[in-house]
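Case study: Aquaporin Z 2.
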Amino acid sequence: MSSKALAEFIGTFILVFFGVGSAVLMGAHIGFHGIAMAFGLSIVAAAYGLGAISGAQLNPAVSLGFLTSGRMGMGDFIAYCIAQVLGAVAAAAVIYVIASGKADYAIAQNGLGQNGWGAGYNGGYSLTAALVFEFVATFLFVTVILGATQTDAPAGFAGLAIGLTLTGIHLVGIDVTGTSVNPARSIGPAVFVGGQALSQLWLFILAPLAGGAVAGALHGAGITRSPHVKPRG
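Here is what the predicted structure looks like once written out:
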């Protein structure tokens, strides 16, 4: 595994361990606001800790945005996506082991921070609501990331801007879908939960990827990019 792929593995592990871990282990104590903060802080930590190695994309939808914007090659895109999914699965496995140490925990009843929609899941929002939220939120997230990391963006603030954006997205969407905007984040818990989490996983792969692809295409075309900046790798 290359140093970039390893950084993506570790970074995505951090994201899922902090974010999903907060929901599973502390959700009853910190609520949606605390979970949103945990996801945002995880991005800040990974961005400043690992961003110099791989860019800390930590998300196949973000990597697809970089690909469609012309700022990433296909080889790196594939390597990043594999590393991100593996990192998410590894983190979900660790959270599962820790949660299982509590006497009254059962994955069938308590879950593992999986994403979803419909009756019995958080606010009970519809498929259409979930699809629209995940597409729009991912589009906005990737647009911010591409803008914050372009060459004339204020130096040193990208990690903070991206982390705060992810926090805001969670504050809007946790009750709708649990907030994915990241196929890897959704795949990790779903692998262990199975059932409905797996059957609904397609939305949390396709909608974020579509949102990321559109954001990248617009950035690459110069529509959401500073006119003074050319695409960079």
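For the exam, be able to explain this: The mean pLDDT is 94.
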